[in-house]
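Summary of Year 1 activities. Much of the first year was spent building the evaluation harness for sequence design. The harness presents a backbone, in tokenized form, and records the residue chosen at every position. We chose the following record to illustrate the format because it has been used consistently in internal testing since the harness was completed.
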């Protein structure tokens, strides 16, 4: 099993994740995050999880 080593780049991408999901980053910031996600499967998985949670919350709000 490959051990996951968290880099400083991963930490920066994680700090940007909410803004990335909210689509509030600049074009340059989006490029940085997307390049990171393309190269780090573990971070891409976290992004997909965050995006999935957002969808579920939106569905829940629609039914209230």
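For this record, the design step produced the sequence shown next.
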């Amino acid at each position: 099993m490959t051990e996951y080593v968290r880099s400083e780049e991963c930490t920066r991408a994680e700090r940007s994740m909410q803004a990335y999901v909210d689509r509030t980053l600049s074009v340059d910031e989006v490029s940085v995050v997307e390049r990171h996600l393309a190269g780090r499967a573990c971070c891409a998985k976290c992004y997909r999880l965050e995006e999935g949670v957002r969808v579920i919350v939106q569905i829940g709000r629609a039914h209230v």
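The CA atoms of residues 5 and 42 lie 10 Å apart. Quantitative recovery figures across the full test set are reported in Table 2.
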